[in-house]
From TrEMBL:
Name of the molecule in the record: I23O2 dioxygenase
Oxidoreductase among keywords: yes
Residues reported to bind heme b: 350
Presence of the UniProt keyword Transferase in the record: no
Domain of life of the organism encoding this protein: Eukaryota
Organism of this sequence: Crotophaga sulcirostris (Groove-billed ani)
A molecular-function term among this protein's GO annotations: heme binding
Family as reported in the entry's similarity comment: Belongs to the indoleamine 2,3-dioxygenase family.
Length: 412
């Protein structure tokens, strides 16, 4: 089992390829595999039947029948990412098959050991994260079809969970946000290059591109309303994104049999695990509150190792904010502030989404108005009503980072 190593401290200026960041797809895995080599057929067979196995309450018994498979036959980054995707989806289904009140305390050895080994090779935790759920979980229905990433056309997920079209829409709209960020990621590289030159004209151009990309991300995020039913998201989908850290439903965490005798706690999937906004915050010099910063930095441990290194390299670059302030250039200042405004607006849109899909959906579920078809739980989930799936106190966190973003504006 092997993975391509990410360079720990590449020299500036930045080069995206050093960090396994694609010129076309950004942090998305450019060409995800859809099948593992033959020895891993038992994993793939279960993975492709997950929605049915979970809703029919058969997944746990099927997992117990899987042979102990060695990870030594996995080769290269793409195979490792697909193995992690498959094992993370099976694991979350295994844990949450019976809902919040029917969780398990032990992940069986035949699942825990290979999941741990693959996770160690990739530098990822052994739990479903944004890197699995979105970055490595997409394919074209027709490989020769249009390259446009559109939920209603030629795009689909590789592995799924209960939730039907809403689950598919949630993953693919999030993927569209990642895709819309790509010009902004490239603008970061251009901006840092311009800081090193220095070249204020190139810096102004990079900031304009960054602001436009963040605006496009907001437009992509709004498509969530078109593709995801709030009742289905809250009552069916959300539990599978939950982790076993800071979760009242699993206060002791999860024991990975054959890995550790003591239970381990990992956060669930969260938008805070996306490298995109971390990269933008570092470039723009946005400083969040102590609590928010601690949570965000912990979420970096859920990013692929090279992407984490990319964010850290941006942090070590010359200060963009200082350059803009010291330049006395009104155009640069205005361009910088457009980036700040666009990023604050994006975070406001995210708050609107969370309000609709969690707060309002939770109230309707309590009142018995939600459609719970397909949910494995006996009743709507409630353990994380006030928290995000990553374990943060969701509204105070989201409003805090939105407000500290706004405070980064440079006064004329």
């Amino acid at each position: 089992m092997e993975a391509r190593e990410g360079t720990e401290e590449p020299p500036l200026p930045l080069a995206l390829t050093r960090f396994q960041v694609s010129e076309e797809f950004g942090f998305l895995l450019p060409q995800p595999l859809t099948e593992l080599p033959a020895p891993y057929g038992p994993w793939m067979e279960i993975a492709h039947q997950l929605p049915h196995l979970i809703t029919s309450h058969q997944l746990r018994s099927r997992v117990h029948q899987v042979p102990q498979l060695s990870t030594q036959h996995l080769r290269g980054r793409e195979e490792l990412h697909l193995a992690h995707l498959v094992l993370s989806f099976i694991t979350t289904g295994y844990v949450w098959q019976e809902g919040e009140e029917g969780t398990v305390k032990v992940l069986p050895r035949n699942l825990a050991v290979p999941f741990w080994e693959v996770s160690q090779a990739l530098g990822l935790p052994p739990i479903l994260s944004h890197a699995d759920f979105v970055l490595a979980n997409w394919r074209r229905k027709n490989p020769k079809g249009p390259r446009l990433l559109c939920p209603c056309r030629n795009l689909d997920t590789i592995i799924s969970l209960p939730g039907g079209e809403s689950l598919r829409g949630f993953i693919l709209v999030t993927l569209l946000v990642e895709k819309a960020a790509v010009p902004g990621i490239k603008a970061i590289v251009e901006a840092i290059g311009a800081l090193l030159q220095p070249d204020e004209e190139a810096l102004h151009r990079a900031l304009q591109e960054l602001a436009e990309a963040i605006g496009d991300m907001s437009q992509a995020l709004k498509r969530m309303h078109d593709y995801v039913d709030p009742a289905v998201f809250y009552t069916v989908i959300r539990i599978f994104l939950s982790g076993w850290k800071d979760n009242p439903a699993m206060p002791e965490g999860l024991t990975y049999e054959g890995v550790s005798e003591e239970p381990m706690a990992f956060s669930g999937g969260s938008a805070a695990q996306s490298s995109v906004l971390h990269a933008f915050d570092e470039l723009l010099g946005i400083r969040h509150s102590q609590d928010s910063t601690a949570f965000l930095h912990r979420m970096r441990g859920y990013m692929p190792r090279p992407h984490r290194a990319f964010v850290e390299e941006i942090r070590r670059a010359p200060s963009l904010r200082h350059r803009v302030l010291s330049s006395g250039d009104a155009r640069l200042c205005a361009a910088f502030n457009r980036c700040i405004t666009a990023l604050a607006d994006f975070r406001s849109h995210h708050i609107t989404i969370v309000t609709k899909y969690i707060t309002i959906a939770a109230a309707k579920a309590k009142a018995g108005q939600g459609d719970r078809a397909g949910t494995p739980a006996a009743k709507p989930p409630s353990a994380l009503e006030a928290k995000g799936t990553g374990g943060s106190h969701i509204f105070s966190f989201l409003k805090s980072i939105r407000d500290t973003t706004r405070e980064a504006m440079i006064s004329a």
